[in-house]
Design a protein that fits this description.
Blueprint lengths: L1 H15 L5 H46 L8 H5 L2 E7 L4 E3 L9 H5 L5 E3 L11 E3 L1 E9 L2 E12 L4 E9 L5 E8 L13 H4 L17 E2 L14 E2 L6 H14 L6 H12 L2
Parallel strand pairs: 9-10
Antiparallel strand pairs: 1-2, 1-5, 3-4, 5-6, 6-7, 7-8
């Protein structure tokens, strides 16, 4: 009891001090810091579900847009019901039910040694270091027929890792669209990867040739009429060669043997056999 009385007496003594005294200013500062910490922590906990919902909504919107399903007056959740989210074992190219596509985060999984693999330097053309063992795919179609395949892709540009979605036609060979939703490239230069006019150059381009070789890439400058192999090439971005090269390497990795290549090859073989 004496300790409590002494404590109360000490606090009373502090409060009785002048507002300009150092001890009192320190006390007020500490109390305000503790109060602010509690408020910030509480707000973070309260807002976390809302933030997660907004992130998921933004991702769904991007998938719908690149798949050509988004409508200005459409409800995102209702439109997304037409999308079948599946998980693929990237080592085999086969579908997997070991993880839930609705909750799986490829970026988070790529940072966990248990759920990811380290990419050997000579194979890490996209500059991402590690990749998740499983990859999400978003399919649009009817019955067994697949009309659109949306793949998450990422790769390092000039300053940052670029995150986006690449949509392919059901033949698993022809580009339907591309979009980027996160990057730190220079505005007006590498940042033009977000420009709809540049993204409009992608639809109709071929990823693989008839022999199955991956050919799609971004060139330096603009393609000239009649350029051989133009069906596998996309115009570059003026003043952003390194960013454009990063996009090419991103495509090379994720549509190659270490990424979705085995899965897409399986789809092509299934389509040719029907």
């Amino acid at each position: 009891m004496s300790d409590i009385r002494e404590g109360k007496g000490y606090m009373s003594g502090l409060l009785a001090l002048s507002n300009d005294s150092v001890p009192k200013m320190l006390l007020v500062t500490v109390v305000l810091c503790l109060l602010c910490s509690v408020l910030v922590s509480g707000a973070a906990v309260y807002l976390r579900p809302l933030q997660a919902k907004n992130v998921e909504m933004a991702k769904r919107t991007q998938i719908l847009e690149v798949a050509g399903l988004m409508r200005p007056d459409g409800d995102v959740d209702e439109l997304f019901a037409a999308v079948d989210a599946r998980m693929v074992d990237l080592a085999t190219g086969e579908y997997s039910d070991d993880v839930d596509a609705a909750t799986f985060d490829m970026d988070v999984a790529s940072r966990d040694p248990v759920t990811s693999v380290a990419i050997p330097t000579e194979q890490d053309v996209a500059g991402i270091g590690r990749r998740a063992r499983y990859g999400a795919v978003y399919l649009v179609g009817e019955g067994e027929r697949i009309d659109t395949i949306v793949l998450p892709v990422k790769g390092y540009g000039l300053w940052s890792t670029m995150y986006g979605f690449l949509a392919l036609e059901g033949d698993a060979r022809t580009v339907k669209g591309i979009t980027f939703f996160q990057h730190g490239e220079t505005p007006g230069l590498g940042g033009e990867i977000e420009n709809p006019r540049w993204q409009a150059k992608w639809p109709g381009k071929k990823v693989y040739d008839e022999a199955g070789e991956l050919r799609l890439h971004v060139v330096k400058g603009e393609l000239r009429p009649g350029t051989p192999g133009a069906e596998y090439a996309v115009d570059g971005i003026s003043g952003a060669t390194l960013t454009a090269n990063g996009v090419s390497r991103m495509i090379e990795y994720w549509l190659g043997e270490e990424g979705y290549g085995p899965y897409l090859e399986r789809l092509r073989q299934a389509g040719e056999s029907t």
